[in-house]
Amino acid sequence: MTETPTVVSPAWLETHCETVTVVDVRDRREYEDLGHVPDAVNVPADRFRDPSSVAAGKLPDPDAFADLLGERGIDSGDSLVAVGDENGVLAARFLLTASVYGHEGELYLLDGGLEAWREEHELTTQAPALEPTSYEAELRDDAPIVDRQAVEAAAEGDAVVVDTRTPAEYDQSHIPGAVQLGWEALLDDAGRLKPDDELEDLLTERGISRDERIVLYCNTARRLSHTYVVLRSLGYGDVRFYEGSLTDWLRANSPDWDPIQLYENVREVASNGFEALPRELGEDVFGRLHLIGLYTQRQEGYFMLRTKVPGGILTAEQARAFGEIAEEFATAPEEHGGSEQNPVHGDGFLDVTTRQGLQLHWIRIEDMPEIWDRYDEVGLTTIQASGNTLRNVVACPAAGLGDETIDVRPIAERVADRFEGDRELANLPRKLKVSVAGCHENCGRAEIQDLGFTPAIKGGRDGFAVKVGGGLSDGPRAATDLGIFVEPNQVADLSEAAAKLFIDHGSYLDTAVNRLRFIVAEYGVDAFRDELERYAPFAFEPYDEAFTTDYRGDHVGVHEQDDGTSYVGVNIPTGRIGGDEFAELAALAEEYGSGQLRLTPNQNVVLTGVPDASLEALQDEPLLSTYSPDPGPFSRGIVTCTGREFCKYGVVETKGRGYRWAKGLDEWAEETGLADALETVRVHMSGCSASCAQPQIADVGLRGEVYRDDYESTRAADVGLGGDLENDAFVDWLVGSVPIDGIPSVIERTVRAYEIDREDGESFADWTRRMPDTELRRLVAEGPEPNRPVVGTEVS
After folding, report:
1. 3-state class (DSSP) for residue 157
2. What is the CATH number of domain 6-118?
3. What are φ and ψ of residue 222, in 5° steps?
4. Per DSSP, what are the bridge partners of residue 639?
5. Where, residue-wise, is CATH 3.40.250.10 in the chain?
């Protein structure tokens, strides 16, 4: 068995071509169409790399690797020459993989790759005849792989730590004491390995010597593979490598990724304007700004500002200050329409989010120090309002007001406080979403959270059951019950434990699989629970009984509180409201209620503590004719994301369109006599394929896209029906690319068909599950089938 891959020249390969197997690691199309070394077998790099794995490392499964090589006719004793593009990085990755999985033959890397071979030799497109073998692969006991603890020990002086990432990545942040050595430094301009004497000088300059142990790391293992092969070929005997990502460690030790330091740095340079940010804080600053709530928007030079509101609870003072800031600073310049920039909402508006937070648009960086000063005066913050950290903690909007097992308000605050300002917890592989609800109606929507806490009991003690691994977007997954009981004072501890597990086991590289739910899915619930318990500061125990019995869709309307007063939920269609109107709501909360407002996951606002004697006067206020506690069914159910108006990913505009649709559909429902029968029709519209508006849990889910045919291109939406969070059911995406102007008619005829066909007490979601998909698709795409009543045609 070889441990020493060797770099060889094209001339060497020509001499030994009869006794070696050439392995071409380019993708199949390049191998077949552009040609390859005669008799070379194709083992594409995407087949022996596993960047999506959330387990320890990114090596492929050994059985899968064995099957791959066996299919290609490779035997464990064959001498292999790996060939790739000129830099040889992926070819080196193949050799490293074969070595650690026990390949017994010699291993060689062709210097300069296929380009070097082509300088003097012809390529062929003729595929070799392959005879499958029974290749075996198993991770060697002495494989040169080290774990994170070994890297940490090396950083303390136990070995030479070599950072194989790019110089720019190294300069931005690196393990203290590490030296930088990437494959680029080892090759000349032609992509060939530099002469041995130049390489020795280079290594000596970096402090890398043969008599010391060497530990390599990077954030894409293919880079370190090339450095590993070159060092071993040069005779460096004790070379090891770390397979995982150290992004979390690097960021946690870098002031650039410290949210508090970033906040201070931005305050210092803000007066110099937008262009000063990349100039003075680095080209990557715009991604880091998410940690302090700032996102660039579609309009160059302006920001969307996200504000954290744990549990959605605002004092009237905070709400008034925020409304005034919106009116003063969230204003469009004249070249973007000024006060008329939005035909529905005008200017100076704010958005309530589906995570009970607040957002502003048109924010200039020059204004941020004053905005932050005003925030400080009332106790608001944007620190870790976004980014790869804990997102705003969602809680029941009626926490502490009615029938519940536990008042979760202080718990939501504790969880938020535990993460705020912590450099390590500010740099997770991806965002972490947590909800906590003490009522029996699952107002925190535990099923779509990374961690959802719902009420439970153990031995007479009140606490929580825990659901884990929920999420929407691509591959939606309903959270799984872990079957454990958590005391109220342990919720923050468990949230931190989950975050640290996420840091150690999550993928920092592949955005397609870097949510907590992928770890849960890969481990399985039992194994995940066992692993989580290792991180938690308390032993797990099962609950006796869980108390979630129902699902509440919203908190709109007048509802009694335990203290004899009422809370009033006012409907904010699409969550957008003028800053002056929001400040007026704050004044109404003080005049008629307790002086507190609650934001809801359906983008509405609740005023609390209103005495019975004041209810009529509050409902008679002119503002509540606009933002009503008794809205039409479509206004009550409309939820939208930011949309194309500001979001760079948005395909369709959502806020103005959603508002107009809801009002028009309400009128249609009144005219057709359906309004009394329809309390709420939940229409959720995302402006792109993402899930910011949570379309998967709606009655009617919409995702914006572009429709193209042979003649034209127009805005469109995918249509899904039947989301039902109470039954862990997501919408069934039935029809794609419906032209956007036709969506209201789709909703009309679908809702009308439901009213005609539904059985007593049957919900919209239940009806969609009973109806054949073929009929639902026809209804959405074409209208009702022949000989059925024509529905939804009264109002276009």
Report:
1. helix
2. 3.40.250.10
3. -65, -35
4. 684
5. 6-118, 145-244
